[in-house]
Amino acid sequence: MDKFVIRGGNPLVGTVRVSGAKNAALPCMAAALLTDETVTLENIPDVRDIQTERKLLVAMGAEVELGYGRAHHRTVINCAKLEKPEATYDLVKTMRASTLVLGPLVARTGHARVSLPGGCAIGARPIDLHIKGLEKLGATITTEHGYVEARADRLKGGHIVFEKITVTGTEDLLMAAVLADGETVMENCAREPEVADLAALLSKMGAKIEGAGTSTIKVHGVAKLRGARHRIIPDRIEAGTFVIAAAMTGGDLIVSGCDPKHLGALTAKLQECGVKFTENGDSVRVMGDGPLRCADVSTEEYPGFPTDMQAQFMALATQVDGTSVVTENIFENRFMHAQEMVRMGANIRIEGRRAIVRGKTPLSAAAVLASDLRASASLVLAALVADGETIIDRVYHIDRGYERIEEKLKGVGAQMRRIGEMLPRKAPLAQQA
Ligand code: EPZ
Predict the structure, then answer these.
(1) How far apart are CA 276 and CA 272, in angstroms?
(2) How far apart are CA 276 and CA 282, in angstroms?
(3) Shortest-distance Cα residue to atom 43 of ligand 1
């Protein structure tokens, strides 16, 4: 298992480019299941979850080309032949977003068999709201042997009110509703930019959607969808991670290829901490020089402060003057990174869904363990300011959602390298006999 070795102390200076959004690319790839024509997606991030999504679609019978070289970051998907509308446990257990195929599969083929995702490091994360929504659209649902099975000759338009705002729940049911017979109204929807990006692709495929990006979405079902070409939006969480890296290291960094609009809640909070910003088209310049001060933050659904930036903000809070209270409202167990930062010398106390972070505390390098995608990003940030060489284990978590992060950070001055598990030493010839 790869590890990162990071020597802290260097301010990040220069320009770092953001990749496409993993959380927009995944639902957009699943949307290709809705048509027998070709869907081409540009600006696809080269991260492990995209590889998993590709395996998922290919296992169903789809043709999926992931571009390399000049075609890097492009994927061409054709789901004309869907022999096996099934998402197996092997794949779903490695990536819960695999459940995003449930709605499009039952809408297109009338049948879907998807493994239930099981527990996750950051919380229970059930998909009950996905299932309830499909039942509202007339699907017959059975759950047995760890799989949910959905059947419908043709889904029927219906009225869905989400008990809780759910991002992939909104996306899954949006993809189901576009081929349903009649009108669907969905209320209390997620307003994340990734939902609007999926709707933009679906509209190019011929879907009739109103209100995507707001809490009420109306869909007029159509009989058939066509192929399309679509460019995925930039990754606002990757951009936010680099913004905080610059602020923590006292750097002067241009984060390019992003959409500053999508960073609203984050930049507002960081300005409260004293971080200086200028926005220019698709880039944000962050100047982290000068003392930073504490601020409280509570995670909320978009456009509130994103839970996917909570861990990174906690790392920053260890380096500002004063006490910051970080409240996690979305997931019930998303403070795994705190104890690893305490191992580096941070002063953090957890009280239920609140973390009380006393700053500024000098961090010292240590061996630490990544537990999930964003937790691992926060440990990279802590290591960038720690005294000495930090070793972060299990970086496969970070590879799920960050494209070649060590190369990008090295490009702006970080001292960082990846060390891979030495290939298993071949037994000397004699022993091989
Ligand atoms: C999406 O997960 C993102 N993943 C997550 O990013 C992100 O943290 C999350 O939204 C919140 O912003 C993708 O887009 C692939 P939810 P999702 O359904 O859709 C509860 C990352 O780091 N809930 O909005 O799975 C749920 O338990 C990942 O890139 C139900 O109770 O999250 C949670 O408490 C991590 N029943 C809350 O709703 C359901 O059926 C919000 O979850 C669905 C959700």
Answers:
(1) 10
(2) 17
(3) 127
